[in-house]
Automatic annotation (TrEMBL):
Protein name as it appears in the record: DNA translocase FtsK
Domain FtsK residues, every copy: 497-701
Stretch list, region Disordered: 218-328
Listed InterPro entries: FtsK/SpoIIIE/SftA, FtsK_4TM, FtsK_alpha, FtsK_dom, Ftsk_gamma, MFS_trans_sf, P-loop_NTPase, WH-like_DNA-bd_sf
Residues involved in ATP binding: 514-521
Record-stated family: Belongs to the FtsK/SpoIIIE/SftA family.
Transmembrane segments: 43-64, 109-130, 142-160, 180-202
One of the GO BP terms on file: cell division
Membrane topology recorded in Swiss-Prot or TrEMBL: Multi-pass membrane protein
Pfam families, A to Z: FtsK_4TM, FtsK_alpha, FtsK_gamma, FtsK_SpoIIIE
GO MF term set: ATP binding; DNA binding
Amino acid sequence: MAKGNVLKQKDKKKIKETTAKSKNSRSFSSLYAKVDRRKAKSISGAILLLLSIYLFIAFTSYLFSWKEDQDLIISTTFFNFIFSSPDIEVTNWLGKFGAWTAHLFMFKWFGIASFAFSFLLLITGVRLLLNIRILPLRKTYLVTFIGIIWFSTFLGLMTSRVNYLGGSFGYAIKEWLTSALGLFGAILLILVLLFVAVVALFNPDFKAIFQKYFPKKENSTSADKNNNAFAHSEEEDDLDEEEIDEEDLEEDEEYEVSFKDDNIDQDEQEDDEEDIEENEEENIEIDEEAESDDDFEVITKKEEQESPIVKPQSEIEENEADENEFSVEVPKNEKELTDKDLNKMVEDFGPYDPKLDLASYTPPTIDLLRKFESNQGGVTKEELEQNKDNIVNTLANYKIDIAKIKATIGPTVTLYEIVPAPGVRISKIKNLEDDIALSLAALGIRIIAPIPGKGTIGIEVPNSNPEIVSMRSLIASEKFQSSKAELPIVLGKTITNETFTFDLAKMPHLLVAGATGQGKSVGLNAILVSLLYKKHPSQVKFVLIDPKKVELTLFNKIERHFLAKLPGEEEAIITDTSKVVNTLNSLCIEMDERYDLLKLAQTRNIKEYNDKFVQRKLNPENGHRYMPYIVVLIDEFADLIMTAGKEVEHPIARLAQLARAIGIHLIVATQRPSVNVITGMIKANFPARIAFRVLSKIDSRTILDTSGADQLIGKGDMLISTGNEVIRLQCGFVDTPEVEAICDFIGNQRGYPEAMMLPEYVGEGAEGTTLDVDDELDEKFFDAAQIIVTHQQGSASLLQRKLKLGYNRAGRIVDQLEAHGIIGPFQGSKARDVLIPTDEALNQHLNEKGLR
Ligand SMILES: Nc1ncnc2c1ncn2[C@@H]1O[C@H](COP(=O)(O)OP(=O)(O)OP(=O)(O)O)[C@@H](O)[C@H]1O
């Protein structure tokens, strides 16, 4: 029994082994076939390349040696010439065979045009051996063969006897043509044929060529201009001739091909066909009938030809009209791409690369930032000892015993960490903060009691000789360079000399305050410089608002790379309050548009959306576009609030509340962090805050919700609060000349034709109404309700479009619609629910509510 079992197990094992073997041998054979095919390709490619070189040398040599060699070849047969006449000596560099081959091609066949054969062998050889596609093969072959025939004939016409220019072929055709048409007629005919061939093969746009060389002197209207800096066409680039080198043009061409599906020209289509053939060779099936993907519909020229033949509407109507009034409209079926096709798009063109538009862009180099001589700052041993003694004695005066004390030296301050003796209450130390600071007789002492996460008390004492933290050291830090953040920013060094980096996209906004002269502008520059060092112009855009009119002007130079502005504005950097209001409202429109696109793409945030776009799953034809992050920087917010009040506060609060998911981030800076500037509404929406030195404890509380910023020492000494903890940093120092050098470096490179255009915003002033939500109903309220119910879509942007309203007014009407139960509450990226199903129900609802 046991024996039988063993046998069975043995059998099973055998069977397994044999199936494994047969599987292996199958996979080996297919592998072998693959390797074999690759070998065959490489070998034939190499042979063709050698042949190409051989012909080229033979032909070139023939140009010099034909006189000597021709007599020898003509006087005998091929066999005799090559094999039986050892005494014959030819001058061709490739000997008898070379002389004979060249004679055959150049004299007997097509003349000098035969060089083209060598060219064809070259591109085919390279394709097979190296798998490099120099030109689309099929089209090149066609063009080359037509070219050979045409040139041979043309040169035949130019000569009076058979020679190596036109070859015998050219001469024979010439004889025949001239006897039939005369010399002039023959020349005319072949010129006409040339024209026909060029049109048939390349279909050039003669009008465009004409206009290029004889441009009309007309200003293009602003409507003609493409609002999106990314969608600018190659032609626009062409206009920018001075700045574009050939390499860039080539790259742009590549970009155009990979992006605009409907612009795929004949060449690429042929390439596609070739690719498909190759794929077929490799047994990759492309299932035309496979399930379709709704996200992306692309019609290439070929597909349009393939779609079912639909009679023109007029034709159908004519036929049918005789009998009755019945007309049929057959909707044209647009072909949808299958998943496989879509993946193939990515395989063929690669994922969409937003950087390709400015592929040659180089980020600023590190040497543009100043190197500080090895920092002289630091703390001497004596200083440390003295401070320690001071602290111990001062605390002893207040009867606070210390168990342990430890010093950590930072760039500008040293942290003395104290472990109090058992039984000492921390609150006691906290209460004595001011007295201790006074006793230590130093500005900038900050007491942290307790240090979060530790059971110790920290006393920060400024170093007598503070170090400058150079921006260069921060940018060069590994932490920053290896950061994978969406909007990486390196701001300074912590008290333990660690580089402090953060992701602005996660913050998601920043409030910056600091009295004048304490390092706020340097800090803002550090933020901008961090982004300039890490991001490509296609990935981030800045909206710079500078009511002080001086701080940010340097950045004007990078307008065509990194800035965004309102259409029709000359300056990208906004200094005028009324324009600030328009810009902020325009950003709100951009925000709504982005939310709509996100919804359409079924994505939750800009990152997912852009990832999907890069994977070519979102069709630009449907309005999708690669979304750059937008960083809005407002320097001196107090000025704005004072002059424009609610008009700026509202859109800022809205942006701050909602813009996070769609990649608009605000950095709002102010010298005066008082409560009427940083209102509750603003504060609530800016969890991340930075404070440079401020003048009072109250200011510190306004900005950070805690004191401490009033105890800073200035010159870039700062506190950053990210909601749960406050960190003291020494801000990186970047001087104006450095920022200037960086902007020059970027500005001198080729940029987009213009700054990124924000959506147009028509101010409400023109409508002459200022509405309040709580006031009576807006006069467009009923129209708006109707539209919302008809479209069953509760979005302010719909109202803006349909009723041509400004952003704020549409927003207020939406609020009123919600208040009167027509739409549901705000739901982030989703549109609000419409609570009334039909027009009749709406009328009834309005009547019931006594609204009309
Ligand atoms: N991080 C820093 N490291 C060293 N020195 C600094 C730093 N930041 C600022 N400073 C010094 O402080 C000076 C004032 O800085 P900054 O111009 O940034 O002040 P500000 O707060 O922007 O003033 P204002 O609001 O008047 O423009 C600088 O010229 C520089 O000398």
